[in-house]
Amino acid sequence: MRILLIGGSGFIGRHVVELWRGPSRAAPDLTIFHRGTTPISGAREIIGDRRQLPAYAGVLRALKPDVVIDLILSSGGQARDVMTVFRGAAGRVVALSSADVYRACAVLHGLEPGPLEPIPLTETSALRTQLHTYPPAQLRMVQQLYPWIDDEYDKIPVEREIMSDATLPGTVLRLPMVYGPGDPLRRFHGMLKRMDDRRPAILFEQSFAAWRSPRGFVENVAAAIALAATNDRAAGQIYNIAEAESFTELEWAQMIARSVGWAGEFVVRPADQVPEHLRLPGNTQQHWVVDSTKIRRDLGYTEPIARDEAIRRTVEWERTNPPSGFTPHRFDYAAEDAAFAH
Predict the structure, then answer these.
(1) What is the pLDDT of residues 284-341, one digit of tens each?
(2) How many CA atoms lie within 13 A of 32 on its CB side?
(3) Angle between helices 249-260 and 307-320 (to 10 degrees)
(4) What stretches of the chain show up as alpha helix (H) in DSSP?
(5) Is the pTM of this model over 0.85?
(6) Which of 122, 159, 237, 301 gets the highest tally of CB atoms within 10 A of its CB?
């Protein structure tokens, strides 16, 4: 099988490459199209800018890939370029999307009126009616972490382009909040730093403590991508990828605490009794629980790495690689101590 990866050196892509690295009868003939900022061994490389994909059409079409996996699709225009370049030259396109396409995400962020969206969210749940939900300032921040994101970022137009071609089949994978070694968003850092700083107690805002969201360990997400790319049953399908259970934020904190042996206390208080930096903006009554039954049933997907081991590996990486620049977490211990005293 000939597989072309667009991207492949980033947070998720390098784990997909690692699954297929080295000589093996089961390993595909792998080519990676990327910017070349991070060397990749064990695979054929084509260096280029995916934002100028049509300029590389000749060399990419000549590969005649059975499957193209686009790890860094950002907008409908980029997806249209992919389908145009590979129509008649590739067998299928696998595109990474996000669970943020669901209406529940817009309700959570206060962008859609009306009732709460029923959960769990399946592949047929309602999508957002508003596009481009990130305000410019937030988009610029995200672009610092993910340089491949363009100004028209939205996964809904991406999905429409990938799934509407009459001659080139597509597969869409809706990803959860992905954690693990290399996570640019440092999802564990806020909690782990407080534990490593030996805080005797950690404060939670009540509704945020109870809020549920989909997560996936990066190596397990990579395994799901590889499975969908190499199984023809995935053609024409949309799949949610997420752990089977969507735990609360408090339950995740408790699992991290068990992993590191932190014996402090979690304190849950109403919103008016916690500092602003500990409140999740938006409607936290809208949970973001995702059902991943379909990919498990259709393709036999199971996570190769158990959750306890996934947490241990993530903690180890966080401790070995403390952030040197941007982090989305705030640590105002004085304000938190004042709230405890109150």
Answers:
(1) 999 999 999 999 999 999 999 999 999 999 999 999 999 887 677 889 999 999 998 8
(2) 26
(3) 70
(4) 13-20, 57-61, 76-86, 103-108, 136-145, 155-163, 189-196, 206-210, 218-230, 249-260, 293-299, 307-320, 333-341
(5) yes
(6) 159
